[in-house]
Amino acid sequence: MLQEKMIEQAGQPMDWDGLAFRLLSVQVLKGSDEIHLPQQLVLSYALIVVTGGTVQLLADTGLLELAAGSVSLCLPGQTFGAVEQSGSLEMYVFYFNVYQYGAADEGSRLLKDAQLLPQTGQLAQIPMPFILTLCNELAQREEMEQRKVSFRAQIAFQELLYNVRVSSWQRPRDTNYALEQAKKYIEEHFTRDLTSQSLAQAAEFSPKYFNDLFKRKYGKSALDYATELRLQQAKRLMAESGAKLRDIAHQVGYADEFYFSRKFKKMIGVPPAVYMKSRRRKLVAYSSSLLGQLLPLNLMPYAAALHPKWTEYYYMNYRNEIPVHISAYRSNQDWQANLEVLRQVSADLILAEESLQAEEKAALEQLASVHYLSSEPADWRSPFLELAELLGESWQAEQWLAAFDWEAGQVREQLHAQIGSESVVVIRMLHNKLYLHCSRSMASMIYQELQLKPAFDAGGEIYNIPVTPQEIAAIGADHLLMLIRRESDTLNEWSRLQNDPQWLKIAAVQRHRVHFLASDPWREQSAYAQLRMIREIRQLFLGQSSIHVP
After folding, report:
1. Residue whose C-alpha is closest to residue 533's, from 544, 542, 520, 547
2. What pLDDT, on a 0 to 100 scale, did the predictor assign at position 547?
3. What letter would DSSP give residue 432?
């Protein structure tokens, strides 16, 4: 039955009898305004518990919506971050390690990939009175112990874990969970003949009530969502050479190819034949920065390096447009796995950075023609124009650059009118260390394109110099642009730094002139990254939305 298929199939979790759990820290996030929880890498397990409001999280397991009482588990080496919240949010993130004990003479070993629970992503709900009491107790105890987790807090955390484990075997009956399961079912079976009535029946709602709830939650009806998924899959299939329109229509769930063609043109804006012609050339963006060179040329690669944290923007906006994803996480370690994926692609052209190791280059060149671009170009425009010429898109590049220069000029004038000669400096934070920092892309945008006044002169445009809060105060910058590494250790150190008396003496901190940057796009040297930087600076300093550049 459809209803049974919509219930998440439980796997077989590990036996907990031989395991030990050690709570490391608790992160508390509260407030009615947008919370600051960027995509971050976790080095330990992270148990995410929502006790108030609703939040959308993007994790390795997908996009999750967690309401009060909801729980999610993130494994070491995975990433998660908040996308959107509604209502006054109250959320706790418990970071912990798991150890496995063997025989008496074997001791213990740290586990990084233990299947602790029967399901991934959003887990079953826990009774609110219990969870709220326990979370508050844990957070208060950590605060009282000055972030040293007490023995009693460890016991309370064991209770929380036990109740999560018990609840994860039970089927929640709340509305949010039912809608999430319906959405997940559609995502896994959108090529089937779905009806509003069958989906509503499986979710245990009347058809009208189900449709109203689904549209209110996701902004579209359940069947419109299924249609959207069908067309996304159709676009992926169209990028494959030799695929016939009739076959594509059948594969995505349409028996009538002519109805499919009409639907495609209505939703996408061009007939399928036109779209297929534009996607016949199979390009591979072997690094994420090369995707940032292709997008301004209105070219979508067949394969690209994507990751929900390291290439968050591209992942969120273009993952459904790109049929084949290769790893953008530690690509220097995953390159052999990436090549295995690309062997199935039959690419026409692979675009890669010249900094690759000789062994990787040689293997890549066995697959297809490869064009290498500089990993650290003196400027971003030259490789952009070089690539455009190679691909026969110089006219597109010139048009895009003209629009870019106009927008940059507008933002520059507005910034100078708003902040005048006030100075800025970029501070990078890694673990518990601070650095005066400037990459080539930052120098190009902040000090050249936008002509903001630097508060620090290192004698060169690229630098990464250790610095203390006292030294930052002495520099006297009017604005601090913070680039904080988004992993749990550094974020915990950042929380501590904000209460450091020396940090609080910095004039820009006292005047609330601390602005936050993300490595994506600020460490990327590409045309599209530069455009995104302009729009981010506009938003940070002027609070304005962007002007559209095609």
Report:
1. 520
2. 39
3. T
Query: What 3-state class would DSSP assign to 460?
Result: coil
Split at pLDDT 50, 70, 90, the class of 154 is confident
Q: In whole angstroms, give the CA distance from residue 236 to residue 320.
A: 8
What's the CATH code of the domain at 343? 3.40.50.1980
Q: Is the dihedral of CA 64, 68, 69, 73 positive or negative?
A: positive
User: Which runs of consecutive H residues, i.e. helices, occur in 343-424?
Assistant: 358-365, 381-390, 394-419
* Claim to verify: residue 274 and residue 419 sit in the same structural domain: no
Total domain count for the chain?
4
CB neighbourhood size of 103 (10 A): 6
pLDDT digits (tens, 9 = 90+) for 227-252: 988 988 888 787 665 678 888 899 88
pTM, two decimal places: 0.66
- Rounded (to 5) percent helix, strand, coil in the chain: 45, 20, 35
| pLDDT 10s digits, 93-142 | 999 999 887 655 666 788 887 777 765 555 656 666 666 677 777 766 55
Same domain assignment for residues 323 and 351: yes
258/344 same-domain check: no
Q: Is the peptide bond before 521 cis (omega within 30 degrees of 0)?
A: yes
